[in-house]
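ok posting inputs for the iron/sulfur cluster job
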Amino acid sequence: MNPTPGLWDPGWGHTMEAEKARALLGRLRETLARSIGVDTELSAIGQVDACRRRAQGELIPLAHHMRAMILSMLGAHRSWRPIARRLGQLELVFGQYKPAYLEHIAPRQLAAEVEQLGCGNPRVHAQMEAIRPNLETMQRIEQEFGCMDAFVERVRPEAVAQLLGRPASRWKLKEVGPAVAMEYLKLVGIRAVKPEAHVQRICGPQRLALLDGHETDEQAAGKLRRIAKAAGADPVALDNMLWMLGARDYGAICGSHPRCDVCELRSDCSFPRARTLVQQSTRPAALPT
Ligand code: SF4
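and the output
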């Protein structure tokens, strides 16, 4: 029994009634659909599709790993949505991310074309210079491990991100730190265990209370996975939708200053009630008449 209406009680053995989970997801989708095309954006983010392909055992070619690495670099230091809008044009700029093309194309030309598309960032010149050495590093990895897929699947995603992003690592990719490496991993269908910080805030005890805030990263990811499963949804899609709810250039609804008035999740959420109570308690008392 859930003791507080609208709150997710972790004491339910971390399961959620299918009906409630489906309703929650429906309200999340409905809220997002007011400002964005949910399926279009999920498809442009690409993680759901990448995870599905990996789950089906599809081998991800080196060109796709290069694409993920390049897009992750471009997405650092800037918002993602304009890049998502230009994926087709970027595909042409980078020659379908084929290694034979990337080995020979001049970094300066790439940077100019990326900037023309409005997809640049303050590091874009250094990032384009990094493509060739990073391709060589990935080719070295393929020689040693057989293929990039074997490498990215061999240990936990966080550990792979360290191997690719930590300065002293022999597999360090230029212009890629652990955070960008995590983005790269998601784009090749490897799921991080840790839900992102603002997904954790949305799901935390002060908002949707899907998490109690005391879980390890793995437990938090497990709870969100189970909610998605109960709702019959893809866990990656749930994670992406929660992220979009807060992201500035997507839903822009549940950020640091939540816009609860336009959110269908109000009945599931502690925040609007708490905010009303605070407002009532700080309102000046009416003068006696
Ligand atoms: S805090 Fe407000 S915007 Fe965020 S989920 Fe709750 S009701 Fe929606």
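notes: DSSP finds 16 helices and no strands in the chain. Residues 124-145 form the longest helix (22 residues).
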